[in-house]
Amino acid sequence: MKEIALGVLASLFFAVTFILNRVMELDGGSWLWSSSLRYFFMIPFLLVIVMYRKGIQSMTKEMKKQPKAWLLWSFVGFVLFYAPLTFAAAYGPGWLVSGTWQFTIVAGVLLAPLFFIRLGEKTIRQKIPIVSLLISCIILVGIILIQIPSAKTVSIESLVLGILPVIVAAFAYPLGNRKMMDVCDGNLDTFQRVLGMTIASLPAWIILAIIALITVGLPSASQVINSLLVGISSGVIATSLFFIATDRVRNNQGKLAAVEATQSTEILFVIAGEMIILGIPLPEPLALFGLTVIIIGMFLHSYYTMLMKKKQTPTVFGYQDLN
Predict the structure, then answer these.
(1) Is 12 part of any domain?
(2) How many domains does the chain have?
């Protein structure tokens, strides 16, 4: 339950991303600057934290072991995650993007066969946790319900451009996160891993920033400030909390799915924030019902995780589920 609590707390800080991205989009800011500035601002804060914990040398050593893996999975986990989210902010309110983003819960469950677990000298392919998948499908129904009212008022083009990039991000984030956990294999703490991934993804952010400079010029002062706030709240605090939670349960696909499901609470924070900051009206009843379904799915994940924990028995390898 501690991991789930960390996931919910991370969702609170993640919500800032969706709100401020929408604010920057409404102010005329380019999504290219919104995405790249966040990661530029993350580096000094993470550097201070890792240097204070005397972790720079060990982080550098690990990155030199597998530079290609760091570059690849950092690009997947950070660039293919955040660039599409900021792009999608141009086509709908933050709560709509945040609601669609909850597809990552289903995506995370479906990715299980791509990963392996070592038990002694054996390497076993992870299986899709069926119960977790069924619960995640409940969340998927909620996502579909919140999209229906918007589908009536926007063009097909806007709907596609607002949804498809988020689906890409929904698969990229858990894939990059989990692959980097395998690469690090417990040798780095969360702050070292986030800093290493941020540094490894820098080439892509620099390219996006150059394109932004050529096409739209320098960012406005408000976009710089908002990007700084996103970098601290979502990039440093939320990402670190979420990675700590997933690191703790990385060898149990059911528990990992439950932690990833806590992201569904983001949408509650986003709706409240947008109503206060942007003055948007309350979503339509059907959308609110969809939001309720998403939250119910998240609580079912939490409940199932508690049941799994009670059914664990010790083995020579640690713990094993009875079912």
Answers:
(1) yes
(2) 1
